[in-house]
Every structure is written in C-alpha cells, then in structure tokens.
Design brief:
Layout: H1 9-16, H2 19-24, H3 32-43, H4 48-59, H5 69-78, H6 87-100, H7 102-117, H8 124-128, H9 136-151, H10 161-183, H11 188-191, H12 197-207, H13 209-217, H14 224-241, H15 252-265, H16 271-290, H17 303-312, H18 314-319, H19 331-347, H20 352-371
Helix pairs in contact: 3-5, 3-10, 4-10, 6-7, 6-14, 6-20, 7-12, 7-13, 7-16, 7-17, 9-10, 9-20, 12-14
Length: about 400
C-alpha cells in the first residue's frame, strides 16, 4: 500500500507503467546500515561513539579496532570505491560549480533548496526538526559547506572533507529518523518512512541535475561532457550517502526521467513549503544586505525573490508565495551578461584557469564569512528542536 502522499497514481501509471510501483516501494525503505550505527553510538558512553566514528571517517576504520560491528558494516561499504569511479572525472565535474562561483551559490539556495521544499511529505523531517525561520541561515550555510567540500578536487576521496561530511550527514539523517519515529508525531500512512530512499534520491538530484538546469537558465553553457562528469560526482556522493543504486541516476538523461516520475506523483506544496521558502529568502536577503550572522525581519521582496522566480518558474513560485518584485526586469540583463561572459571565457585562450581560481576563492571566502569562525562539525542532533 502506498502512503497517501503518493498522489495521481492512475494518471502516473498510465504514463509510466509499473515504474510508478517500483519507485513507490522506496517510500518505505530507509538506511538500515546507518540506523544500526546510530543505535551503537547511542549505546556507548556519551560522546565516545561519535569520536570513534569521526576518527574512522578521517583515518579509516582500521584505526578504530574497538569499533562496533555496525561501524565496520558501514565502512566496508564506504571504503570500497566502486570500479566505475574515476577521480579525474569527479574532479572535472566539481569544476562546474567552482567555475560558476556566485551563480552556483545562487542556484543552490534559490532553486535547489526551494524546489526541495515543494514536496509536502519530503519537507516534513525538516519542518518537524524545528529548522524553520530561526535556523534557516544556519541550514543554508551548512548545506553550502557540504556542497563546497564535495566539489573541491579530491573532495570525496577517503579521509577528505567531502567524504567525512557526507558520512556524517548520513548518520545525522539516521538520528533524525529515529527521533521522528520516537516522537509519536510521524504519520507513516501519510508520508511514508521518514528520510526514506525515495526522498534521498530526490535530494541528490537537487544538487546535481537541478543545479545544472539552474546554471543554464542563468545563461551559463555547460558542455555535455562536463555535465556528465558532474552527474558522476553526485552519483558517488549518493553511493556514500547510502542511496539504493536502483534509484541513483548515472546520467543526466536518467535523472530527468526519474524527476519526471517523481513530479508526476508528488502532491502540491503545503504551508510548511511556504514557511520554509519564506525563511530561506529572508536568510539570503539578510546575508546579502547585512552580512553573515545578521538578524532581523527583513522582507524578502528583493532581487533574490525575482531571481528565485526565474529559477523555479512562476507557477511554482506562486504556490510558494514568492513575491513578485520590480527586480524581475533586471534578471534578463543578468542572464545576458552571464551568457556574454561565458562566451568570452570559451573563446579566449588561457581564461579557464583564472575563472576557476576566482570561483574557488568565492566559495572559500563565502563559506568562511558565513560561518564566522564557528565551523560546522555536522554532529548528531540530540533533539528535534522547538517543534518537538
């Protein structure tokens, strides 16, 4: 039986056949390997299990001979690099958002994250964890840090920042899943399992094909070979995150077909979708106008709102209550400038290196400024937040 969130079944089956039912099975599947690690961490003396796990991410499971068997099961999977992984290809893929610099950051916040909020059941773990208005800036910065660590050269090699952060985020998801189930507030009949495989696959595509589309909307040309390399980067990230290979796209074309299937069955955005979107727009406005760490109730009726509308389309923007502003008339100008600059970069010799270095510096400085020296440890949450 499908959760009631899985709507439009008849029309979707008429269009996609039994693929709908095969996808639906993943709404009840989770990550038992990560769940077992969290159970082990919780059974150990306070802090000791997490320190073991942190060390294993950085130095390998062999460096923690006292680790529980559940740790070994996870790291046996994570430390075995699949034969299809080519490190040069992954590094080439990471250059796409590094080269894009501020454009990639804008697409990440105003397209990828916003579209992730539109799922009325997929957004429930975030909404119920209390990560709404008061925590939106922090979430934005943590997500950017995760992406930055992933796209850096060698970022997903064992022991590198992206590799360590990805495995820690995997455990964070497992801990939140446990807390949601224990809270007695999770409606499995309506939403499926919390942080299930279906939703993890959708999230991975927000960072991959959804970001590629956003860069193209803003006028950036992404060569097909670079786009496919970028897809491979997030395919491997999904492998480390524990996503079932059955629903992990290997190419841009496969990702689009899976996206179409998900959208054909997904319900309409709900009030949580709108709350999360407003909080994100406010967070990006505060960061742009007042700098990192600012507070206040600034209205998101800014260029960011206009850019968000361009990136997600007016139909979805209306459902999310993204305001219409006069700044929309400036967006075509930005797109034209981006397209012109991209053509110059492609045609003029020796510009690739400087552009890539400038984009990398932008990501590094933006993350450093946003975190303001606090750092992000991606530790296990101890409570759901003020929504609990």
């Amino acid at each position: 039986m499908f959760p009631s969130r899985f709507v439009h079944l008849a029309s979707a089956r008429a269009r996609f056949g039994d693929r709908v039912d095969r996808l639906g099975e993943h709404l009840s599947r989770v990550d038992p390997i990560a769940d077992a690690v969290v159970a082990s961490v919780d059974a150990l003396p306070a802090g000791s299990g997490w320190r073991m796990f942190d060390r294993a991410t950085r130095e390998g499971i062999a460096s923690v001979p006292e680790a529980p068997e559940s740790f070994r099961a996870l790291f046996d999977q994570a430390e075995r690099v699949p034969a299809w992984v080519d490190w040069e290809t992954l590094d080439r893929g990471g250059q796409v958002p590094l080269r894009a610099g501020i454009l990639a950051a804008a697409v990440l916040s105003l397209r990828s994250l916003v579209l992730g909020y539109t799922s009325p059941a997929g957004n429930k773990p975030l909404a119920m964890s209390g990560a709404l208005t008061e925590r939106a800036p922090r979430r934005l910065h943590e997500t950017a840090r995760f992406v930055q660590a992933t796209i850096k050269p060698g970022g997903l090699r064992p022991g590198a920042d992206g590799y360590c952060i990805t495995l820690k985020v995997r455990l964070m998801h497992a801990r939140v899943r446990k807390m949601l189930l224990e809270s007695g507030r999770w409606n499995a009949a309506e939403w499926g399992a919390p942080l299930n495989q279906h939703d993890h696959a959708g999230t991975s595509m927000l960072f991959s094909v959804t970001l590629l589309d956003g860069l193209r909307i803003l006028g950036m040309h992404v060569p097909p070979e670079d786009a496919e390399a970028y897809m491979q980067l997030w395919r491997y990230s999904g492998h480390l995150m524990g996503i079932d290979p059955e629903i992990q796209p290997t190419t841009e074309r496969e990702a689009r077909r899976l996206q179409e299937l998900i959208l054909a069955t997904q319900g309409e955005p709900d009030e949580d979708s709108r709350h999360l979107t407003r909080a994100l727009l406010r967070a990006t406005f505060q960061r742009a106008r007042r700098g990192p760490g600012s507070t206040g109730d600034a209205e998101p009726a800014t260029f960011n709102a206009a850019l968000c509308r361009t990136l997600i389309g007016d139909e979805i923007a209306d459902k999310l209550d993204v305001p219409r502003t006069a700044w929309r008339f400036a967006v075509p100008l930005v797109r034209g400038l981006v397209s012109a600059a991209d053509r110059v970069r492609a045609r003029v010799p020796f510009t690739e290196g400087p552009v890539l270095r400038a984009g990398t510096r932008y990501w590094d400085r933006t993350i450093a400024a946003a975190l303001a020296g606090r750092g992000v440890d991606f530790g296990l949450p101890s409570r759901l937040g003020n929504a609990a």
